[in-house]
Specification:
Order of helices and strands: HEEEEHHH
Distance between the termini: 34 Å
Helix content: 25-40%
GO molecular function: ATP binding; ubiquitin conjugating enzyme activity
Number of domains: 1
Organism: Aspergillus sergii
CATH architecture: Roll
Domain UBC core: 1-153
CATH class: Alpha Beta
Protein name: Ubiquitin-conjugating enzyme/RWD-like protein
Keywords: ATP-binding, Nucleotide-binding, Transferase, Ubl conjugation pathway
CATH topology: Ubiquitin Conjugating Enzyme
CATH superfamily: Ubiquitin Conjugating Enzyme
Number of strands: 4
Largest sheet: 4 strands, antiparallel
Length: 161
Amino acid sequence: MSEKRIEKELAQLQAEGSSSYSAGPPGAHLYQWQGWIMGPEESPYSGGLFWITIQFPVDYPFQHPKVSFTTKIYHPNINGNGYIFLDILIDKWGPHLTVSNVLQSISSLLKEPQPDSPYIHKISGLLDIAHIYKTDRPRYEATAREWTHKYAMQDFGGDEA
């Protein structure tokens, strides 16, 4: 079942043709995808191209895919290893959700971080970023823009992820 579902979702993503995100298998292995998310306009990530990996479990869609950033990003809900602290990728997943839903949710998370998320309450690095986000927004946005320029704008002279 999971293979047919993954193929269906791949076709759906290709049909959508979003300019904000895309994903698919880079080779023949259907259970491992690579994708990207454009930094949303009116966010400190604007203009950035953020690469992600998606690994599907064999019992997909009954278990969530593992999605992580490979491009470094300064964000209160994404740790240094690229792990995304997002409810639908932790304990709010359901088989009705799709990769397209996940990519849309991640894009929304970039535009509207969740500094009070219960998923980050024990992760000191993320708590520090969340605190800066809540108490010194200009500093947060400047650092996020700096990281976006450095790591997510390779065509503009930034370093690769």
